[in-house]
Design brief:
Helix content is about 0%, strand content about 50%. It has about 110 residues and is an all-beta fold. Strands 2, 4, 5, 6, 9, 10 and 11 form a seven-stranded mixed β-sheet that branches. The protein has a four-stranded antiparallel β-sheet with strand order 1-3-8-7, with no helix packed on it. Strand 4 (about 35-40) and strand 5 (about 45-50) form a beta hairpin. The radius of gyration is 13 Å and the shape is globular.
Length: about 110
């Protein structure tokens, strides 16, 4: 079973940017879809963005063209480039592939 490790979270000021990474323990070439989710304590986990094995991407409406998901299959890694961050983006961000989740990385947007 694939294992996923997220990194790149941290504290950033409103309007700032971060790039999250999700590294898989095995090849992602055949994984149908890999997704980024986020969760605020006390709320349901919500889908942020996804990318298929063919490179087709999709985004939640609240992203509003601020985020971009990408992948480097040679490195078994997907990314989430987040710009124009808002305090409402504060959450733990998770990577998901098939039924496997990573451990999450905290993103805090605050001045």
């Amino acid at each position: 079973q694939v294992q996923l490790v997220e990194s790149g979270g941290g504290l950033v000021q409103p309007g700032g940017s971060l790039t999250l990474s999700c590294s898989a323990s095995e090849s992602i070439f055949t994984i149908r879809s890999m997704d980024w989710y986020r969760q605020v304590p006390g709320q349901q986990r919500e889908l942020v963005a996804g990318i298929t094995s063919d490179g087709i991407t999709g985004y939640a409406r609240f992203v509003k063209d601020r985020f971009r998901i990408s992948k480097n299959s040679a490195k078994n890694t997907i990314y989430l480039r987040m710009t124009h961050l808002e305090p409402e983006d504060t959450a733990v961000y998770y990577c998901k592939a098939s039924d496997v989740w990573g451990q999450g990385t905290q993103v805090t947007v605050s001045s």
